[in-house]
Design goal:
mainly beta, Jelly Rolls, globular
């Protein structure tokens, strides 16, 4: 049976498009709850295995991994493949080449499955 932990964050600060680093070394991300009031943009990601060097996250076909975020505070279930080897992550408003600044602080909730530890 899964043991779930809710992580309050990461947060994208007002006037920014990229969140601070979130530490997911204690479990695999399985669900994201998007913030209410989000300024229209997709959510994309930067990932890291060491928490220092971050890379934009892409699918094997070259498309940037993105989630639709409509500002209604929706829970989005992640596929098991989406979180393979993701130890640290930053959430971005918009795409890597077209970030979208948020007009207010935006806090995500991330649910981790603690039965799968990455470190």
């Amino acid at each position: 049976m899964a043991q779930l932990t809710i992580v309050d964050g990461p947060v994208i600060r007002a006037g920014e498009s990229l969140s601070e680093r979130a530490d997911f070394t204690n479990g695999r991300p399985v669900r994201i709850v998007t913030p209410v009031g989000w300024d229209g943009a997709v959510v994309t990601f930067q990932v890291s295995v060491d928490g220092v060097h971050f890379d934009d996250l892409y699918m094997p076909d070259g498309s940037e991994v993105s989630l639709i975020c409509d500002g209604l505070g929706r829970a989005i279930v992640l596929s098991p493949d989406a979180a393979i080897a993701v130890s640290y992550v930053k959430y971005r408003s918009g795409y890597a080449n077209r970030p979208v600044v948020q007009t207010a602080e935006r806090t995500f909730l991330t649910v981790l499955d603690n039965t799968v530890q990455l470190r």
